[in-house]
Amino acid sequence: MDFSADAIEGRSITAIIRNEMNIPLGGVWLTYSIWADDRPQAIYSASIRPAATIDGALLPGEQMEARDFHFMSDREKEIARDADTLRLTIEVDNAADGQMNGFLDHPSMGSWTGNTTEATCAARES
Fold it and tell me: What CA–CA distance (Å, rounded) separates 91 from 85?
């Protein structure tokens, strides 16, 4: 993930996604949260939607860049500017195989089938 100071003012979050599994991935549901100092709640959370559907699939060993733009409110940006430290967390909430079947029932995108895959999340062999 690219998380520089420009991520707050420039509104851009970039993730490099690499498929280290042994099957093609048709989509990846990523959620990121921005945390400030010792606040008990994230000041902002969103999904990186361009990764949710990957045209042509992401084959084993391939990588892609997914860029998304956040829409933090003025209050949220002010908290981020005033913080001594900011922290970014990212979670892979779900992924879809090449046929757009999710590994989990939820969450999923409208382009996903709504079915779960029979594939396993085994790492590919180098």
Answer: 20
